Amino acid sequence: MSKIAIITGGSRGLGKDMALAIARKGLDVIITYNTLPNAAQEVVAEIEQLGRKATTIPINLLKINSIDVFVAALSEVLATKFEGRKLDFLVNNAGMGGSIPMETATEEQFDEFLNVHFKGVYFLTQKLLPLMNDGGGIVNISTGTTRFVNPGYSLYASMKGAIEVLTRYIAKEYGSRGIRANVVAPGPIETDFNNAAIRNNPMLKERLAGLTPLGRVGNADDVGGVVAFLCTDDAKWVNGQRIEVSGGINI
To answer: What does the pLDDT average to over 181-195?
Structure first.
């Protein structure tokens, strides 16, 4: 029986590539989206062309009270479309960007980043773990800016730093179920994230590429394969780790 992975924020960018890379490993895939239902359905179609089952479910992590509604919808989907099987892997990828200097950050912005990048991930994971098979895994997406500093990312990187600590606790507390938990931390990636900040700013792109020994910024397909690896038995002994996928920036 095929295993099932769920990827939050799987309609575009890194999440889309993760979903496709995981499907190529022979897993069925559920993706979530917030504002792009048509794009999410296109990803589903691509996964189905690979011979895997796939579907989409909406969720908005800005609204923590929406998690219970999502879990109920997911339980129904698992029962009706996936033969009552449980999840095997959870990839917490959904996120929002924003370059906000600390001196101008507002409490409202803080709460938005908190909900999407930490509180939402915490409680979504908590509520999905009972729906997961033993021996599966969780992959939390962080950022290179928990290791090196990029001015304007104090909100984003702080929440991701909390996620990295949480990941180690999940690995410890759920190890008795054989559930592994790891972090993948991308460096600068040229996608539409944060209003396509890198793609739309050639000078920024050139500066970031110059900080990387490989001489370029990352692409979405530089990350998806690493996440997919963690969703296979090839990674069965990788647990509680932070894997930075950044081309060696700032080493």
So the answer is: 80
Indicate yes or no: pTM above 0.90: yes
Topology (CATH) of 4-186+223-245: Rossmann fold (3.40.50)
Give the residue numbers marked as catalytic.
156
Q: Are 61 and 93 in contact (CB under 8 A)?
A: no
Strands 4-7 and 180-186: unpaired
| Cα–Cα dist 99/195, whole Å | 10
As a whole number of angstroms, the distance between CA 57 and CA 76 comes to 11
Q: Write down the domain spans for the chain.
A: 4-186+223-245
